[in-house]
Design a protein that fits this description.
Elements (H helix, E strand, L loop, with lengths): L20 H11 L16 E6 L2 E6 L5 E3 L2 H9 L7 E2 L8 H8 L3 E4 L2 E2 L1 H6 L4 E5 L2 H11 L4 E4 L9 H9 L3 H28 L1 E7 L5 E5 L4 H8 L3 E2 L1 H4 L6 E5 L11 E5 L11 H4 L2 H4 L2 H4 L3 E4 L7 H16 L1
Parallel strand pairs: 3-7, 4-5, 7-8, 9-11, 9-13, 13-14
Antiparallel strand pairs: 1-2, 5-6, 9-10, 10-12
Length: about 325
């Protein structure tokens, strides 16, 4: 698994596949490369435009029609923006938020983490490939850009979640639709703050998920994706989350349930069926956890949008917190 949980460590990964030289040659002939210059149609309207990406400026179609997404965050934003990609990543059905599940199931899969099917991508004849510059995709960038213009949002553990939908919207020229999504999110934040502001400010919140380190779970900091949304809602963090350094997570033993002792609410990651994700149930099963005030009060707050890749995901986080505050 990648060392950073935000780099996609929540999804199963397999080794990179070999690429057939003949398939790549066909892809080059059919689609061209991402370094092509801007062109203008006979009508005088631009048919391509330059966008800033993690790998520099890339010339892309002004109105791409056949988009392949190789990362779930990009896929979710494409769906939000009203687009229908011709190929998407296989991140594992259980990790796809329910709002996207039907559309995701209906779309051909071209990757499973670092296992990228370049030949299948070429067969789909994309005019644009979008994603996020996580380490395994960054290594694949050259091969992908030989198939079609490839645009990756810059990836940093310290970046806010909104960087990714904002970049995706720019790549596909849907900034008007993006503005509407942003406004919807801001309106939801404002509504929840107005309704539950006193409760939000009075409580202490920690953010955790099951880890892939043997026998450990992860504590997320205030600048994590969920932490950033909680900050916008005006919360105070419990000592466990407050102690995590910026841009980091803290891996601790399941036996250290006591680190959550001063939390009034704990937010954790769930699968799309609502069940605890990534082994966090090991923590919840311990008597030491059951004896915590937060567990006794029923304030363990699960959300399948724990790693938001889109504005709808972020709204989903807010909705999960609002639902918990209603109880």
């Amino acid at each position: 698994m990648p060392s950073s949980p935000l780099a996609g460590a929540l999804r199963p990964r397999r080794l990179l596949t070999a690429v057939a030289a003949t398939a790549m040659a066909l892809a080059l002939a059919a689609c061209g490369s991402s370094s092509s210059s801007s062109t203008t149609a006979a009508s005088g309207k631009a048919t391509s435009r330059a966008v800033a990406t993690a790998h520099g400026k890339v010339s892309v179609p002004t109105h791409p029609l056949r988009i392949v997404s190789v990362h779930s965050w990009a896929t979710e934003s494409l769906f939000d923006l009203g687009l229908k990609p011709v190929g998407v990543e296989n991140c594992g059905e259980t990790y796809v938020p329910p709002r996207y599940l039907k559309r995701w199931k209906a779309t051909p899969k071209v990757t499973t983490g670092a296992d990228i099917d370049y030949e299948e991508i070429a067969k789909l004849r994309p005019d644009l490939i979008v994603g996020v510059d996580v380490p395994y995709l960054s290594k694949a960038y050259k091969k992908l850009s030989a198939i079609a213009p490839t645009t990756f949002a810059p990836f940093k553990d310290t970046a806010t979640w909104a960087v990714y939908p904002d970049a995706t919207a720019e790549f596909v020229n849907r900034t008007t639709q993006l503005a509407a999504l942003k406004q919807k999110y801001e309106d939801r934040i404002a509504a929840v703050r107005k309704t539950y502001g006193t409760q939000l400010a009075a409580a202490r919140w920690d953010v955790i998920q099951g880890g892939f380190d043997n026998g450990n779970y992860w504590i997320y900091g205030a600048d994590s994706p969920v932490g950033a949304i909680l900050t916008q809602l005006g919360v105070h963090f419990g000592s466990a989350t407050a102690a995590v350094a910026k841009g980091d997570t803290k891996s601790v033993s399941y036996e250290r349930a006591d680190l959550l002792k001063d939390a009034d609410y704990v937010v954790y990651y769930t699968n799309n069926d609502g069940s605890p994700a990534n082994n966090i149930q090991k923590l919840f099963a311990l008597q030491a956890c059951k004896d915590l005030p937060v567990a006794k009060s029923g304030h363990l707050v699960g959300t399948s949008d724990f790693l938001p890749g889109s504005y709808s995901d972020a709204i989903g986080v807010v909705d999960s917190l609002a639902k918990a505050l209603q109880k």
